[in-house]
Each structure stands twice: as structure tokens, then as C-alpha cells.
């Protein structure tokens, strides 16, 4: 790129940075020190002079902060005095800063780096010369419960060592969670209607149908043996007589009369006293 094009690109970036710069209204949830730090950084990138910074910052004040500036404009004459007086007016008390630092905990879906940077900043706001041991104490106190035991075990001695320790454990936990969400292995469904399959293999792998199982059991089991060996003819005739007693007695009389034999003429169906051929004898 030519020097002219590079300058145009820098100017475009500067305009975008100024456009995206957040405004300050003086609310309880706003951090005046952090906001001034962000503003200073953007003004430095855009290469604004001190006099121009004092003029430009006025367009980023709103609500209570805008009212405060209008009321105190006569005593705030430049960029340096503006920063000092704004911090005096809106910097929270030490008690408020300490409470905010204590309440800053790592969210369930928040990465270690975001939590670490915010907590370090809050510690520096409460005590600029806070010792490493106290910083690590507050850092550990706000960690996720799943990470605290790992910090205690490894016992880091500097804030940077704390960050490395916790990030290592965070990566391990993310890897384990990735394993737990993998799709379980699907069970293979064996074919049941493949006529080209080996018959012996098919017998083993085919699901047994309840109807077929019942049929096979009946097919291979022998007929039940009777409790007593009763002659078939006797049981049949007995059954016939018990089923129809009148018919059975008639049949008995008919068979009895038919089986009689006459000793006179040797014929059947009658006896000698009633023989029709006796008169002729």
C-alpha cells in the first residue's frame, strides 16, 4: 500500500473507533475509571491532541454525567483536569469497590481468561499494591467449584501462574465434556430376510418368532402317553354306550337276537321252541 492509502485506512479505523466508543452516564453500574481508560486508548490511536480530546469527550457524556459537566464546566478547563474531576465525582468508595470485587465470580459459561482479567482489574482498583497472595486468594474465591481443588493442589505463587494452572484444567475439563457428548455406537441390525445368507448362521441370528417357536416345540415333541393302556375298541364301545344309552341297549338286543342259533334246524335268529321248521319235522 502507498503511504496515502495507509493514511486513509488509519483514518477509517480512527473514525470507526470513535463511533463505537461507549458513552458515560454516571450510573451505579458504570465504571468511570475503566471508561476513561478506554477513551484514552481510543484517543491515542486516533492521535488526538490534548486540546481536541477535551472537546471530543464532551460528546460522550450523557444523563447525570452530562449535567455534572455543565454545572462544573467553568472550573474544568482542559483534558487533565477533566479526568481528575470526573473520577472524584463518580469513583465508587473503597467499600463499594471491595464489595464489587468480592461479588465478581466466574459464570458457568465464562472462560477463565475473561474472569481473570476482570478480577485482576478490580483488585488493582481496591488496592493498587495488593500482594500476590491476596490476589490469588480473591481469584480462587470466585472460581467455579470444579476448578478450585486443582488450584489448591498445584498452589500457584503468582497471578500469572494461577492463570496458567486454571487454563490447563479448563482445557482438560472441556476435553472430557467433549468425550461425554459423543454419539454412542449404533447397534447393528442383522438382516432377517436375506435368502442368500448361510442357513446355519441365519438360524443363530434370526429373531425367533413366538408362533414359530410354539410350532417347532409341538413338532419335535412326541404325543403324550395315556395314563392307562385301555383297549381302543372297549373304550370306543363304552363311549358309545355312555353317549346314547337307549341306542346302545337296542343295538345290544339286536346283536344278541341275531347271534342266537336254533339247535333244531341249526338256523340263526331264533331258538328251538320257536323254530318255524319244527312243525315240518
UniProtKB/TrEMBL annotation:
SUPFAM superfamilies: Retrovirus zinc finger-like domains
This protein's name: CCHC-type domain-containing protein
Ranges of compositional bias, category Low complexity: 231-257
GO molecular function, one term: nucleic acid binding
Taxonomic path: Eukaryota, Metazoa, Spiralia, Gnathifera, Rotifera
PANTHER family according to UniProt: CCHC-TYPE DOMAIN-CONTAINING PROTEIN, ZINC KNUCKLE DOMAINCONTAINING PROTEIN
InterPro entries: Znf_CCHC_sf
Coiled-coil zones: none
Location of region: Disordered: 218-257
Amino acid at each position: 500500500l502507498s503511504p496515502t492509502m495507509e493514511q486513509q485506512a488509519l483514518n477509517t479505523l480512527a473514525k470507526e473507533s470513535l463511533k463505537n466508543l461507549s458513552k458515560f452516564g454516571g450510573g451505579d453500574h458504570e465504571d468511570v475509571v475503566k471508561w476513561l481508560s478506554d477513551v484514552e486508548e481510543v484517543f491515542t490511536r486516533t492521535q488526538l491532541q490534548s486540546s481536541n480530546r477535551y472537546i471530543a469527550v464532551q460528546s460522550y457524556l450523557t444523563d447525570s454525567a452530562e449535567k455534572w459537566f455543565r454545572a462544573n464546566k467553568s472550573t474544568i478547563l482542559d483534558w487533565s483536569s477533566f479526568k481528575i474531576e470526573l473520577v472524584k465525582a463518580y469513583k465508587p468508595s473503597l467499600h463499594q469497590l471491595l464489595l464489587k470485587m468480592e461479588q465478581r465470580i466466574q459464570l458457568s459459561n465464562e472462560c477463565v481468561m475473561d474472569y481473570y482479567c476482570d478480577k485482576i482489574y478490580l483488585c488493582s482498583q481496591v488496592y493498587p499494591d495488593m500482594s500476590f497472595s491476596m490476589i490469588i486468594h480473591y481469584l480462587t474465591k470466585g472460581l467455579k467449584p470444579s476448578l478450585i481443588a486443582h488450584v489448591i493442589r498445584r498452589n500457584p505463587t503468582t497471578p500469572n501462574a494461577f492463570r496458567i494452572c486454571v487454563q490447563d484444567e479448563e482445557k482438560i475439563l472441556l476435553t472430557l465434556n467433549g468425550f461425554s457428548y459423543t454419539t454412542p455406537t449404533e447397534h447393528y441390525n442383522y438382516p432377517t430376510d436375506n435368502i442368500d445368507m448361510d442357513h446355519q448362521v441365519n438360524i443363530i441370528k434370526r429373531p425367533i418368532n413366538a408362533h414359530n417357536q410354539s410350532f417347532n416345540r409341538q413338532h419335535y415333541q412326541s404325543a403324550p402317553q395315556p395314563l392307562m393302556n385301555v383297549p381302543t375298541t372297549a373304550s370306543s364301545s363304552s363311549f358309545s354306550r355312555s353317549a346314547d344309552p337307549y341306542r346302545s341297549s337296542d343295538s345290544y338286543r339286536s346283536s344278541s337276537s341275531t347271534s342266537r342259533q336254533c339247535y333244531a334246524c341249526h338256523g340263526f335268529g331264533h331258538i328251538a321252541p320257536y323254530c318255524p321248521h319244527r312243525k315240518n319235522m
